[in-house]
Amino acid sequence: MPFALNESTEFISPTKTLEYMAAGKPVVSTPIHDVKAMFGDIVAIAPSADRFVAACREALAEAPAQTAEREARMAERVRKHSWDAAAEKIRSALDLILAGPRASGTATATAAGVSPVRGAAPGAALAARSAGERADDKATALRKVASAG
């Protein structure tokens, strides 16, 4: 992924990285921040044209054992960053926001992997709380979602 390094690419997060990884392809990229931060241990990062070409040649010369190991690591990382994983993070954050303070059964239900919101009367938890409490919980939950990604 030979992205130019300029103002236009300073804050991009190329989805094609995950697409190539999902296909099991070796990836070589210029040092785009998100690629380095999220996948720099799996993706070859090449800061110059010469290094980019060399990294492509190295990828083409991979031994079968190296390919199998890389593909396994890529598959695991793709699972971690899948749309299903992102949706689950959002669902969990919404459950946290909507659940509010509940009886002691909440801790038990959550520990068992059951959302405390499911089965509750619609809006019951929110109706019992002040707007200030909801805003504080919402901000905390959204910060957790943002830092988890």
Protein architecture, described:
The radius of gyration is 21 Å and the shape is flat. The protein folds into two domains: 7-80, no CATH class; 83-148, no CATH class. The chain is built from eight helices and two strands; from the N terminus they run αβαβαααααα. The protein has helices at 16-22, 33-39, 49-60, 64-80, 83-99, 105-111, 124-127, 131-148, and strands at residues 28-29, 44-45. The longest helix is centred in the last third of the chain and has 18 residues, at 131-148. The chain is mostly helical and 149 residues long. Helix 1 (16-22) crosses helix 4 (64-80) and helix 5 (83-99) runs antiparallel to helix 8 (131-148). A two-stranded parallel sheet has the order 1-2. Strand 1 (28-29), helix 2 (33-39) and strand 2 (44-45) form a beta-alpha-beta unit.
Major pleated sheet:
2 strands, parallel
Rg over C-alpha atoms, rounded to the nearest angstrom: 21 Å
Q: Poorly predicted ranges (pLDDT <50, ≥5 residues)?
A: 114-132
Total of domains: 2
Strand numbers in spatial order across the main sheet: 1-2
- So what's the overall shape? flat
| Count of DSSP H/I helices | 8
Can you count the beta strands?
Answer: 2
End-to-end Cα distance: 22 Å
Task: Provide the succession of SSEs.
Answer: HEHEHHHHHH
Helix content: 55-70%
Strand pairing plus helix content: what structural class? mainly alpha
Question: On the 0-100 scale, what is the average pLDDT?
Answer: 78
User: β content, as a range?
Assistant: under 5%
